[in-house]
Amino acid sequence: MILIIDDDIAVRTSLLLLLKSEQYDVQAAATPVEALIIVKKERPQLVILDLNFSIDTSGEEGLDLLGRIRKIDAALPVILITGWGSIELAVQGMKLGASDFINKPWNNDHLLQSVKTLLSLKGAGKQKHTRRQLDSQYNFQHIIGHDEKMLAILETIGRVASTDASILIMGESGTGKELIAEAIHQNSKRRGKPFVKVNLGGIATSVFESEMFGHVRGAFTDARFDRAGRFELANKGTIFLDEIGDLDQGSQVKLLRVLQDRTYEVLGSSRTKMVDVRVVCATNKHLNEMVAKGSFREDLLYRINLITIYLPALRERSGDIPVLVNYFISNLKEIYNRPNLTITPAAMKWLQQLPLPGNIRQLKNIVERSVLVSKSDELDIDVISAQIEGTPVKKDSTRLPGVGDLTLEQMEVQMIRKAMEYHHNKIGKAARSLGLTRSSLYRRLDKYNIPYDETED
């Protein structure tokens, strides 16, 4: 049962009709006293609470009621209904344990999405699934690992992917945040729509509005043509805002508006546009510490983290290192046409003992560089350790360049070209051999201006 708490009969009636039309069991209360009686007696699954009551417009009565509800049932999800003028109160409510806040006038779809997500999470059992069971239910083919921490993350992704809940992915660099974001998209109802990745750390403040919201011709000196922004490109799909912790304060305010009410204005135009998009954010920074220092907006943090996923560092799941290494080697066998590539048990054990501050990305680069410089198809500690310590390794001059001769970007370009050539421009097969999704490979082909004439997979 869902409990609506609001002194305004019009609000109660609207929410009752909306939720009943979606086949939810709903009750309503007009006063805190009535609400507490229902909470104690009926034990609702979710509460929708207005912060302001007719006898008090400060919001304090609503916050007090929230605290009393949490004392009765600390696990009960609570959605706050608030106006723009009381966003600060909503943030206080989130600190007191509220799960989400919805602005007035609310968007029905947005409110229903929040309800569905919170009920889904509350109703999820504690049953643990094996990797095979998870793979039978969801599309996780590009995420490698069997560690319990990763399985718990995949369980969470599976449960929330079908909703439109905002998700914040946190973790060190190289832990696979983009792959997790793509898995969320691929397992959502938006899977057939665009997945647009934006590296916010790479967008200058001066062009933020143009990049994110687009511009019309003549909006500024070099605006010779109309240009669609990233949000417009992602409409009906998912937008992945990577490195959101790098966003400056001014840009945070502009981003907050579109996340709050799903509207924006194209630069140079006064016309307001609506956007229907799922938002997934990621960062390797500690946003709570940034909020405490005043460098990240608290209301923006609560807007993007209805669900927070913490990706463990590779050193925290070292048991997955052999699985990852064997996966990389399997792909490299195809790319370099070296079917006998193997790694010695001693080398594998040595890799598991490394701190690997660069996580999966660093491990992948170590294995790839080892294959490039090794004359033997059997990778041993000597060759692999040289890629960490920078020790020179004597290499066959007829083979590909060794360490120091290529940047990582040049190496990536070379591997993509080889994979495309080996698989005769079949994007799906080339992407799988590189450990990428199709969309990730398309982005890299465009980024590096690698020409291709796609053939049927």
TrEMBL record:
Residue ranges of every copy of the Response regulatory domain listed in the record: 1-119
UniProt keyword annotation of Transcription regulation present: yes
Sigma-54 factor interaction domain: residues covered: 143-372
Pfam families: AAA_lid_14, HTH_8, Response_reg, Sigma54_activat
Keyword Isomerase part of the UniProt annotation: no
Keywords: ATP-binding, Nucleotide-binding, Phosphoprotein, Transcription, Transcription regulation
Database matches in PANTHER family: C4-DICARBOXYLATE TRANSPORT TRANSCRIPTIONAL REGULATORY PROTEIN DCTD, TRANSCRIPTIONAL REGULATORY PROTEIN
The protein's name: Sigma-54 dependent transcriptional regulator
Native organism taxonomy: Bacteria, Pseudomonadati, Bacteroidota, Sphingobacteriia, Sphingobacteriales
